[in-house]
Amino acid sequence: MEITYILIHCDEHEERVSNIEKIQKTLNKNVVLFKGYYTKQNSILKEDMVSFLKIHDINLEMREPSFWRPGEIGCYLSHHTIIKNIMNSSLCGYTVIFEDDVVFQETLHNDIEKIIANLIDLQVEWDILFLGNITNNHKTHIIDNIYTVDANNVCTGTHALLINNKNSEKIYKNNCNIVHAIDFQYKINIDNNNLNGLVIYPPLCFQQNDIYVSNIQ
Predict the structure, then answer these.
(1) CATH code of 114's domain
(2) Is 217 within a domain?
(3) In which domain, by residue range, is 83 found?
């Protein structure tokens, strides 16, 4: 079972380097570092946001202003670019996308292998799975700790996402039409049946809001 681990980190956030080292040690697997887009100084005027986004991907569209804070632009673009890279490289298997404030237990890799095996055995079609979400969103139980996403509740936090690589083009295309910040974007697409999304409950991965101030704020 091929699982690639990618971790988003902006060089400007030096305070998180120690947590990156902890992530690598705890997981005990190769973790590819992705240099995140730092946009805290960016303008949030629509025309400026669109111009900036199209520099990085001409396919990105924004009909209405979709971001409330400059940091959301970089977060969205970082996740979107990783999905694009998965698609363009025809990467097999699965990818876990971490943000650099994530924390988890040493059993995570084995837990993920079990999740994937259960979904294969049950022949469940899925595109994206939240390994944790801040609001503990979950609805219909599938098996073990795997649930569907509750359309009536928010599902925030993209600190740990499991991607089904074979469906990366589908995810990419749905991300090109920007309507909101990346976590809300995924939730909207799941609610509208554009993406098949699942959640793990209780969460396996957590965002350390008590230690690190959100880069988006």
Answers:
(1) 3.90.550
(2) no
(3) 3-207
Structural domain contains residue 214 = no
23 secondary structure, DSSP code: H
* CB-facing half-sphere around the CA of 119: CA atoms within 13 A: 26
Instruction: List pLDDT tens digits, range 3-56.
Output: 999 999 999 999 999 999 999 999 999 999 999 999 999 999 999 999 999 999
Strands (E), the chain: 3-9, 31-35, 61-62, 94-99, 102-104, 128-130, 141-143, 146-148, 160-164, 177-178, 197-200, 205-207
Return the amino acid letter for 169: E
Which distant-in-sequence residues (6+ apart) come within 8 Å of 123 by Cβ?
none
At 90, is the pLDDT very low, low, confident or very high (cuts 50, 70, 90)?
Answer: confident
SS3 127: coil
pLDDT at 208: 83
